[in-house]
Every structure is written in C-alpha cells, then in structure tokens.
Write a structure and sequence with these properties.
Helix 33 packs parallel to helix 35. By secondary structure, the chain is mainly α. 78% of the residues lie in helices and 0% in strands. The chain is built from 35 helices and no strands.
C-alpha cells in the first residue's frame, strides 16, 4: 500500500512507523516533537489563527530564522497581537532597523506588553533620552517584568537616586542574578563588610544575596561569597565557592583558591591555580608564584613572575623585585625597583627605599620616604621615623611617631612610648603601653612590664631552699614570657624568683640558660646556687666566666675561694680584679682581702 502525503511530514508528526531497528534517540524524539508542533502551528496560522502565527513567529525568531519569522509576526501584529508586535520589534532591531523596531515596541507597550516597555526603555536610554527611558522602564517594572525592574534600578543608580535599591531588590527577589549581586555589593558598601562593627543582619543579608547570585552561576558573587566564608573561618565551603568561580573563569577566585590551598599545606595544587590565574592576567597570582619560586631558590623564575605581575599593573611586582635584588646584594637594582613601586604609591616600598638610603648613609634622602610611607599608613615607617628623630635628639618628634605606630599595634613602638612615660612618671600610661608591647611579642616590653609590676609587689616571706611554693604572681608570668623569648635579664630574674620560692631546680635551669647566653649575672647566681648545694668547684667555673665578663662580685668570690684553698697568689689576683671592677662595696671588701693576702704572702 502506498503511503499518502510527504514522508518527512509524517515522520515529524510521529504518525509514520519506522522500520524495526531504527528507533530514534531521545534527542531525535524531542526534535520530532518540536517539528510536529511547528507543523501544527503553520497549518493553524495559514487558517487565520492569530495566536498560532504569533507563537510560530517567536519560535522562528529564537532559532534565528528571521526571514521565516517576519511574515508570521507581521500577520499576527496586524491582527492586534501585542506579543507579536514586541517580537516584531526585536526582529527589526536585530536587522538594524532600530527606529521601526521602537515603533512596534511602542504599540505593544501601549497595549500593555511589559517586555515591549522594557525594550522601548532600553532603546531610549541608548539614545540618551533618560526621561523617556525611565517612563517606559517604570511601566515595565510596575507590571512585574524582572528585566524592566533591573534596567530601571540601573538607570536610577546611575543618577544616584535612592529608589534604585527598591527596584534592584525587586529584580533580585524575582531571580535576576546580576541584580542580586549588585544588591549585595551595595549592602557591602553601605554597611562596610570589612568593618567588624557592621550590623549582623545587614552582613547576613549581603551574604544571602551573594549566595543567591552565586547559585545562579554568577562568577564574582561566588568569589565574594568565598571571601566572606573564608574570613569567617568556614574554609571548606569557601574553597568550594572559589573553585566554582575559578572554573567559570574568574582569575581572582583561582588566586584566592591558591592561597587557601597553600595555607592548608598543598603548595603544588596552589601553584596550579596561581598559574591559571596569572596566565589570565592576575597580578596577585603572579606575585604569589614569584614568591613560591623565590623560596625554592629559583630566582630567575621568581623574577620572571614578578615582572609579569608588574606588567599586569600590580605594583607589588616592583616591590618584590626590589626585595629579590636586595637579598642578592644588587643594591642599585633594588633601589630602582623600590623607587618605581614607591612612586606608584606603594607604602612598604617607600619604607624599604628609605631603609636602603639610610643604610647607605643618606639620612636626608631617607626621611621624606619614611614620611611618605608613614602618611600612607605604613606602621613600620612611622616607627622608623621615631628612630630617626630619636637619633637626632628630637625626642618630642620621635615620641609623636612612636605613638602613631603604637596606636596601630606596633609592639616595639609601644615599648618606646612606655619607656618615655616611665621617665615622665606616668605609671598608668606606661603600664598600658608596656602591656601592648608585651602582648605584641616584645621581650623587652614583657620584661619592663614585669619589672613595673614587681616594684609594686609587697615583700614575700623567705622560703628555705627546696621548700617549693607553687603560686606565681602576674609579674613572674611576664618575666617568664620574656625569658622564654631569650631575654637574659628576665631569665636571671625568673631564676631569682624561683629560688625565692624554694624551687632550686627551676632556678638553676634559668640561671644556666642565661649564663650560657652570655649573662654574667646568670653565671654569678648559678655559682651561688651551686655553692650552696655543695658544688663549689663547679661554682668557681661559673664565677670565673662571670668575672671574666666584668662581674666584680664574682671576682671577689673567686678571691675568697682561692684564699681558703691556700692559693694566695691566685686569690690576690682575683682580689685585684674585684677592686678594679667594683662596685664600691665590693672594691672595699676586695681591697681589705687583697691587703691581708699580701701580708700573708710577704710574712
């Protein structure tokens, strides 16, 4: 039996049974269904169905078949279909007939098409007619058209109109990802996301919009969401968002992911992402690669990446090149790179340049760079200015810069301010600054704070050696912190306090640590402790070390040891040494001993 009609048409309608073994794939079945629908619409349109002509024209327009779509859309438009009028405007706009397109959009918009009102508003804005653009975009937005709401928000934001946020929020709430991202950015700017005092609800709202935009595939939203999560310590989720953004082509996310991996100890994976970001022009990633190769001693590769960072517009590249040259002793080149970065406003480069000039004896040239760096916010530069002025005897100016650096958390600057306040007799202010210095890691600050607190302590009852008292005062805790950082006077003082508590073992440990580091007081006190424990020969060894370093009491002790042993000449020699070293009380006693030994020797 012959098959009547066009075989292809029958395939598309699904009414033609295919031979066995040629069953269509799922995609082919979808295509068949779409083709069948088009055939149905074409027949209906030919029969005068206006809606069918409009829908068919829209399908052909989406496919890019402008020639096929236009007659269908014109026919439907002529019959009063506003959707067809809007689509006819889109088609004409694509053909380059913008004015004619606007005419059809106006017809559709007047008939109530929100999409046409949006298109017409965009048309007027592109031509600079903002009042007309606002009118039509508002018409679209008020009808609930998401693109109209976003376009209206964009226009109002451009003007600085506070109503922009309302329409941006409306578009975001209807799922517009760019609107959600921009709303989050606006909230960040308003609340100051970097500010720890920003209201929690505002910060949470910004995060919510970032999350919505990121979930819809917005690269930069995913980047910012990752940064928020990283700051909060949620590193695993932050890494996932960085990865999502990086895979979508955002180099800053790839760079941030690299730092996250590096901090987790996976340097190799970090380098892969930094390389990807650097190749896409991210200067920060190029600098990170440079630093990685510099750590490995691959200076040429490091220099190449630092130069790549500089070419990408990152002034850190010039600064890092300066550091690299300085480490290699290439002072002239280091100065050149520091200057380049400093002139571009890099404050740490300005500070490094000033240090380089100062080391070369150019104090006059160094000062303005220190000032420039300090005024730009470099804490180290402010401290260095304090040192510079202190060296000139300009104590008031020095203190001013020390105070500025201390206010920014510089521990050594806080120490200098604390010492100055102690000289002035302002103990409360001195204590406050010394606490900042000690808390910031300054061993000298911890020692001086301990000494200040120690001076206020009421005297404690003496304890027999070996009778251990466990309780420690705050001043002893600060002494111990300084001692653990290698502060020799603090080590001696901790030993003394331990001895006063009766903890001989602890006292000996700290005295020995100080003595081995070169403390003559530590060596002397260790000798005293050993002598009390009956180890006078070993005590003499430490007293000899202390006396050789200029400790008068140690020399006197040695003179007495040798006198008791009958080694009068050696005793007289150490007595002479004690007289010379002092202090006055020791010199007086050593003088009497020396005279007695001299008489004994001459008898």
């Amino acid at each position: 039996m012959d098959v009547m009609g066009d075989k292809a048409t029958l395939f598309e309608t699904g009414r033609f049974v295919q031979p066995s073994g040629t069953e269509p794939t799922r995609d082919e079945m979808v295509d068949m269904g779409e083709a069948a629908e088009e055939t149905r619409l074409a027949f209906a349109a030919q029969s005068g169905d206006v809606e069918a002509a409009s829908v068919l024209g829209a399908i052909l327009l989406r496919r890019g078949d402008l020639d096929g779509a236009e007659p269908q859309l014109r026919a439907a438009t002529a019959a009063g279909d506003r959707a067809a009028a809007n689509n006819l405007g889109v088609l004409l706009h694509q053909r380059g007939y913008a004015e004619e397109a606007a005419g059809w959009w106006r017809i559709a918009a007047v008939a109530g098409s929100a999409a046409a009102a949006h298109a017409l508003g965009r048309y007027h804005r592109e031509r600079g007619d903002e009042p007309a653009a606002e009118y039509w975009l508002r018409q679209s937005a008020e009808q609930g058209h998401v693109l109209g709401a976003y376009a209206l928000a964009d226009l109002l934001e451009h003007r600085g109109d506070v109503a922009a946020e309302h329409w941006m929020r409306a578009a975001a709430e209807r799922g517009h990802r760019e609107a959600a991202y921009r709303l989050a950015r606006a909230l960040d700017r308003t609340t100051g996301h970097e500010d720890e005092t920003a209201p929690d609800n505002a910060v949470a709202e910004a995060e919510q919009w970032y999350r919505q935009a990121a979930a819809r595939g917005h690269q930069r939203a995913a980047l910012h969401l990752g940064a928020i999560l990283e700051k909060r310590g949620e590193l695993k989720e932050a890494g996932r968002w960085y990865l999502t953004s990086a895979k979508d082509g955002e180099p800053r996310a790839a760079c941030a992911l690299g730092f996250l991996l590096r901090d987790a100890g996976d340097t190799e994976s970090a380098a892969v992402w930094w390389l990807r970001a650097a190749q896409e022009g991210d200067g920060n990633a190029a600098n990170a690669l440079g630093a990685l190769h510099a750590e490995r001693g691959e200076t040429q590769t490091a220099e190449r990446w630092y130069r790549a960072a500089l070419d990408a517009g990152d002034d850190n590249g010039a600064y890092n090149l300066g550091l690299l040259c300085a480490e290699q002793g290439r002072t002239a080149q280091a100065e050149q790179w520091y200057r380049r970065a400093a002139y571009a406003g890099h404050r740490e480069a300005a500070n490094a340049l000033a240090i380089l000039l100062l080391q070369g004896g150019d104090t006059t040239g160094a000062e303005p760079w220190f000032s420039k760096a300090a005024e730009a916010g470099s804490v180290d530069a402010a401290f260095n200015l304090g040192i510079l002025y202190a060296g000139r005897g300009a104590d008031e100016m020095a203190l001013r810069w020390y105070e500025r650096a201390a206010a920014a958390g510089h521990a050594e600057a806080a120490l200098q301010v604390g010492i100055a306040r102690l000289r002035e007799g302002d103990e409360p202010e001195a204590e406050r600054h010394l606490r900042c210095a000690a808390g910031g890691g300054s061993a000298e600050g911890a020692y001086r704070l301990a000494a200040l607190l120690d001076a206020r302590r009421p005297p404690e009852p003496a304890h027999e050696l070996g009778e251990i008292v466990q309780e420690k005062t705050e001043c002893e805790e600060w002494y111990e912190r300084a001692a653990s950082q290698g502060h020799r006077r603090a080590q001696v003082r901790v030993g003394m306090l331990a001895a006063a508590r009766g903890d001989v073992v602890e006292a000996a440990r700290w005295y020995r640590t100080a003595a081995e580091a070169g403390s003559r007081n530590g060596a002397f006190n260790l000798g005293l402790l050993l002598a009390r424990e009956g180890s006078e020969p070993e005590a003499a060894v430490w007293w000899t070390r202390a006396a050789d370093a200029g400790h008068g009491r140690a020399a006197l002790r040695l003179a007495l040891v040798y006198a008791r042993r009958g080694e009068l000449a050696e005793g007289q020699r150490w007595a002479d040494r004690a007289v010379a070293l002092g202090p006055a009380e020791v010199s007086e006693r050593a003088g009497r001993l020396r005279d007695a030994l001299r008489e004994e020797l001459s008898a």
